[in-house]
Design brief:
about 325 residues; alpha/beta; 2 domains; 6-stranded antiparallel sheet; 17 strands; about 25% strand
Amino acid sequence: MNARLSDYDYNLPRDLIAQRPLQRRENSRMLVLHRAEQTIAHHQFRELKTFLKPADLLVLNDTRVLPARRFSDDGTIEFLFVERLGPNRWKCLVKPGRKMRVGATAKIDHVSMLVEDITDDGERIVTLDEDVDLYAGGSMPLPPYIKRPSDDRDAARYQTTFAHAAGAIAAPTAGLHFTPEILNEIPHAFVTLHVGQGTFLPVRSEEVAKHRMHAERFSVSPEAADKINNAQRIVAVGTTVVRVLETAARSNRLPTDVSSKERQIEPQSGQTALFIYPPYRFRDVDVLLTNFHLPRSTLLMLVSAFAGREFLLRAYEEAIRGRYRFYSYGDCMLVL
């Protein structure tokens, strides 16, 4: 039976959507899911180390969020600059779209831009009169469910403490809970996936298998590959890390090798459009730390593939009863 979009729905009270980060990153709550026993327990994120084994390796996404949100000089149009395509040329999302059809113009910092084309997914390709860095003077691109403008605090808190490689338009939110002190106590490695709009685009087809992900850029360094291949268990911090590891595992392994537990990750960079949903057989992820995700989202489907859909939705019900904080600035869950 084909998976249906409605299989990944749940009702969330609006007041559980976290609008601001906690005063301290490490004070998040952590719902722990034991897959083997099908049990759920309530803990604090700062207890994470107690659930890990000495030979475990945390793998985290070190992408850095770009200050990609800008407004037109007259304040009527919001731009999210997704990618610089070349001198004087950018790909962006705009609101409201009706004001920026092909041939429309606007100004940012007195520099004129023209809509050259519109992609099938509604992105605008714009050309500028001058070659300027539109990220200079921009603000953090907070998700639309955070109902306030970004401020100076978001510049630090909507960024992991280990963010390094600039290129994302959204934070890898499972990493937001870590302080340098907590991370330094646990063996870890970094990979990079520049989170783009593809991660968050809605699934429009009721038949889940018909959805197609946008490609996002990723890389695995030689140092990270070596650590991953020699780890006993891999603890993926976030869905973006899962997609990197599973993409790398699939690219290095023949179909006849899928049952092998020997890790074969090689240093690489490229793009991934891997869409993970049940049933999916994971190659190189053993434990998952993740935030709570939107209904009907590809992120919820990925975690469902790892935890089991019915078990995961039961855990979400438990989190709602326990008034956990949801989404980017919210609490987290550990799936063992």
